[in-house]
Amino acid sequence: MYGVIFHFLRNYVIDKHGGVDTWRALLAANGRKIDNYNPITEYPDSEVIALAKTASEKLKVPFAAVLEDFGAYTAKQLVTFYHMYVKQEWKTFDVIENAGTNIHKALNQYNKTRKPPHIDATRTADDQLLIHYYSQRKLCPVVKGIIRGLGEHYGESFIIKETECMHSGHPHCTISVQKIK
Ligand code: HEM
């Protein structure tokens, strides 16, 4: 996973869970002495997962809930840090659709060995989006969090339901999103 994700996780822990001391404690608990993640360097997926797992243990919050909360917090950072990929007039559904068709691919175009998530989004009505998420990382809680966080950023609310999940043996996760405001 790109170092930029560690930066987002760092911001999340510092802002929402006790400041830089908590973040340093998480790093130390995972054997990392220096806080020096480079945004465009690739680090093992296991490293970011281990940090999130330690956070979940220390905060006594279920792992999936930590991932979802992290996704919600990170949505705004994604659209501001990567503003060059995001049109001013877009709302939540536009960002999700473009993440699936263009954005993740553009971020990985110079590195063919990387495996970005595959997000297949279809508008089944003006206020409904059906998402199929495929990734060997199986981070569907992050997907649900990002949707909620994008909604908060764009002033929209959604009912988000996961009807099929890779963690229950499905080949992908299916997430339906119903806009309510
Ligand atoms: C401006 C929009 C977005 C940008 C710039 C962006 C960027 C990124 C980046 C840089 C990563 C790390 C990839 C890696 O290291 O391989 C990532 C991962 C991820 N993104 Fe996005 N993303 C965007 C929108 C979305 C949306 C809308 C969703 C879902 C609704 C999403 C779901 C994910 C997930 C689940 C991962 C974790 C990796 C995985 O599951 O394989 N992203 N994204």
CATH architectural grouping of the largest domain: Alpha-Beta Complex
CATH homologous superfamily title of the largest domain: H-NOX domain
Overall geometry comes to: globular
Query: What's the overall average pLDDT, rounded?
Result: 94
- Largest sheet, described in full? 4 strands, antiparallel
Beta strands, count: 4
Strand proportion, as a percent range, falls in 15-25%
Bound molecules: protoporphyrin IX containing FE
List keywords for this structure.
single chain, 181 residues, alpha+beta, 2 domains, four-stranded antiparallel sheet, 6 helices, 4 strands, binds protoporphyrin IX containing FE
Description:
This protein is an alpha+beta fold and 181 residues long. The protein folds into 2 domains: 59 residues; 111 residues, H-NOX domain (Alpha-Beta Complex), CATH 3.90.1520. The chain contains 6 helices and 4 strands; from the N terminus they run H-H-H-H-H-E-E-H-E-E. Strands 1-2-4-3 form a 4-stranded antiparallel sheet. Helix 4 packs across helix 6. The mean pLDDT is 94.
Topology:
Blueprint: H1 3-16, H2 19-29, H3 45-59, H4 63-81, H5 92-107, E1 118-125, E2 128-134, H6 140-154, E3 158-164, E4 173-179
Residues 1-2, 4-5, 78-79, 82, 85-86, 95-96, 99, 103-104, 107, 114, 116-117, 119, 135, 137, 139, 142-143, 146-147 line the site of protoporphyrin IX containing FE (HEM).
